[in-house]
Amino acid sequence: MPRPVPPANSGATQRFPVVVVGAGPAGLTVGNILRAASVHCLVLETETRDVIEQRPRAGVIEEWAVRGLEKRGLARNLLDRAELHTACEFRFGGERFRFPYGRLTGSHHFVYPQPLLVTDLVREYADVRGGHIRFGVRDVRIHDLDTDRPRVSYTCPETGERQEVHCDFVAGCDGARGVSRASLPPERARIARHDYGIGWLALLAEAPPSADCVLFGCHARGFAGQMPRSPEVTRYYLQCPPGDAPENWPHERVWSELRQRLGAAGAPPLTEGRLIEKRVLEMHDYVVEPMVHGRLLLAGDAAHLVAPIAAKGMNLALHDAFLLGDALVARLTSGDGSGLDGYAEACLRRVWDYQEFSQWLSEVYHGTAAGDPFRAGTTVARLRRLFTSPAAAAAFAEQYLGTAARY
């Protein structure tokens, strides 16, 4: 029988085999895997439960990732409610080109907004599997990572007192700006970065999608994209200068640019609606190596960031979480440390594969707006090859769906 865990703020020394820092898709998936194996863990999150269940984020999940969630009993609502996408459409040169990747591969995407997935994962972890979680914590710190007895401390939101938790392992799943990545000794962390030199204006519109699939507009004025989120809400992107301000994009300008950049012969008009979110994303990538430092294991955006160009971020986070959760269970229940030993290498193979595809796709999206006639010409050649070469189409579909590096 597992040892009973003292409740938070009980005054007793708290000890958990694993402390998970961050309650995003990666952290909650790791927590659920541990609880399914009856391994105690504590999840620490700086935001409230309401915030993490509502903040808009990604929405495209690759089929292999859904099957990984399903295998672990974490996909019931997703499978019931998600939309299935089997095609995307490129628009360039005033024409429409539909790419039926489902027919080419037999695979598809699931469209399920990240807030819904996080809501499902929190409920399963905290309410069904009885996992320990603390929301709204402040000033999280990680200590003694080079020993076999690491500690995590935080300020309790209710009392303002410092709490300390002893553990065997820390799973750092708290994103790009979290304490986990910051806890790596600077002399040991190698961060490979790439800056695309562009921005994307990310928009959420209270409007139904204007097409039944994802749209990619490759236009001389800049890239535009439509990503359906639900029958009532649609995600749009507009290429913009880096450092641009959302205030520079009033309602009429947004919709005018979307109409121009997504316009094509025979295309139905865009369905406009109120813009409920506007923020500028700086298009950049990074990869942190090592992903493991002592008893700290990074996952998700704490370890790597891939720009939303290819909709890969949440999928990479889930891949990390599957590997890390399974490896921790093996180590803590049977003493098998082989999964932890190979964790970073296994993660990074897929990370670098997705980074390379993101760079390739960025040139397809943005090359026609680069102001360079040569780049514009080669970009159009790439696009046309997708629709004239079966080999090029198969290679693109494999990378777009994430089936090149199967989990």
From TrEMBL:
Domain FAD-binding positions: 16-357
An annotated Gene Ontology molecular function: oxidoreductase activity, acting on paired donors, with incorporation or reduction of molecular oxygen, NAD(P)H as one donor, and incorporation of one atom of oxygen
Domain of life: Bacteria
Keywords in alphabetical order: FAD, Flavoprotein, Monooxygenase, Oxidoreductase
InterPro entries attached to this UniProt entry: FAD-bd (IPR002938), FAD/NAD-bd_sf (IPR036188), RIFMO-like (IPR050641)
Annotated Pfam families: FAD_binding_3
Name of the protein: 4-hydroxybenzoate 3-monooxygenase
Organism: Streptomyces cahuitamycinicus
